[in-house]
Amino acid sequence: MFKIKLVALWLVLASGLSWAEAEPNKPNAVPDNQSVIQKVVDGTAIDINQASADELATLANIGPKKAQQIVAYRDLNGRFASIEELKGVKGIGEATIEKNRVRMMVAAE
């Protein structure tokens, strides 16, 4: 029971902190959903241009073999400009990209 209360308290505090960071010039500003989602994603997303094959293999429907193919494709063709460019890797289609969209990112250089 104590763990549940502790987690609930942490969630309340964390959500209060994200509101405070939303727009410092507006004291009671509530962030839009996209900015909150982006903050969460930025903390856990895998940069497909920097990730090792082992990191890529943790994505849904991406095993070690496909992960190696992604790295080889990246080495041959250069950095991915968008997540959609993963479709150029044999065996990766829209369904795989959509399953992993929130776990992947393409960081600015």
Protein architecture, described:
- The chain is mainly alpha-helical.
- It has 2 domains: 2-31; 46-105, AF1531-like domain (DNA polymerase, domain 1).
- It has 5 helices and 2 strands.
- The protein has helices at 2-22, 33-44, 53-56, 64-77, 94-100, and strands at 46-47, 104-105.
- The protein is globular, with a radius of gyration of 18 Å.
- It starts with a helix and ends with a strand.
Descriptive labels:
5 helices, 2 domains, mainly alpha, 53% helix, DNA polymerase, domain 1, 4% strand, 109 residues, single chain, globular, two-stranded parallel sheet
Quaternary status: single chain
**Lateral arrangement of strands in the main beta sheet:** 1-2
Question: SSE string, helix = H, strand = E?
Answer: HHEHHHE
The helix content is: 40-55%
Residue share in β-strands: under 5%
The tally of beta strands, per DSSP, is: 2
Overall body shape: globular
Unreliable stretches covering 5 or more consecutive residues = 17-23
Q: Estimate the mean pLDDT confidence.
A: 79
Q: How can the largest sheet be summarized?
A: 2 strands, parallel
Short précis:
The protein is mainly α and 109 residues long.
Which helices and strands occur, and which strands form pairs?
Blueprint: H1 2-22, H2 33-44, E1 46-47, H3 53-56, H4 64-77, H5 94-100, E2 104-105
Parallel strand pairs: 1-2
